[in-house]
Design a protein that fits this description.
Blueprint: H1 3-10, H2 13-18, H3 34-45, H4 48-79, H5 85-134, H6 137-141, H7 147-164
Helix pairs in contact: 4-5, 5-7
């Protein structure tokens, strides 16, 4: 008895046709669903404070970046023609302080966004794993090996890419 005959004897042919095979995928094209979006926002709300602080650091980074050309303009247009050496040193000090603050704000923004994103992804993975553990064996038996894993990994990685970018 060959392996394929054994399978045909154990599983009725009608059931074999209905099984989800590797080359047949479920219909995944769905329109925007506000309920699913609200479920996703729950994860982001848990980290709202960190993300708000990161947003403030982002605004500070942008404003500090706009100050540097103003300092340069002041030095080139006003201080150099007036030969104001002490003023040039003061503006250089302000420029250096602005660059250091810019680096600090950029670093803090990146750290907060990265940590929040990683925590959100960890929570999604944990909840997803808990959900997969509760599914009946029939769910796994009706799908090819690896299909569930690939879908879960791809979806979670897509969310991770969205949060990290």
């Amino acid at each position: 008895m060959t392996k394929s005959k054994y399978i045909e004897e154990k599983i009725p042919k009608t059931e074999i046709k209905q099984r989800n095979k590797f080359n047949i995928d479920e219909d995944l094209d769905q329109s925007f669903n506000i309920k699913q979006f609200a479920r996703a926002i729950i994860y982001v709300k848990r980290h709202a404070k960190k993300l708000l602080v990161a947003f403030i650091f982002s605004i500070a980074t942008m404003l500090l970046g706009l100050l540097m050309p103003l300092f340069t303009r002041t030095v080139v247009d006003d201080l150099i023609p007036a030969k104001d050496i002490p003023g040039i040193f003061k503006m250089s000090g302000l420029f250096l302080l602005t660059v250091l603050l810019l680096l600090f704000c950029s670093r803090m923004k990146a750290v907060l966004i990265t940590k929040s994103g990683q925590h959100i992804i960890a929570e999604i993975r944990h909840d997803l794993f808990s959900h997969l553990q509760k599914l009946p064996f029939d769910y796994y038996d009706s799908r090819p090996h690896g299909k569930i894993l690939v879908r879960v990994v791809n979806y979670v990685n897509a969310v991770a890419d969205f949060l990290s970018n």
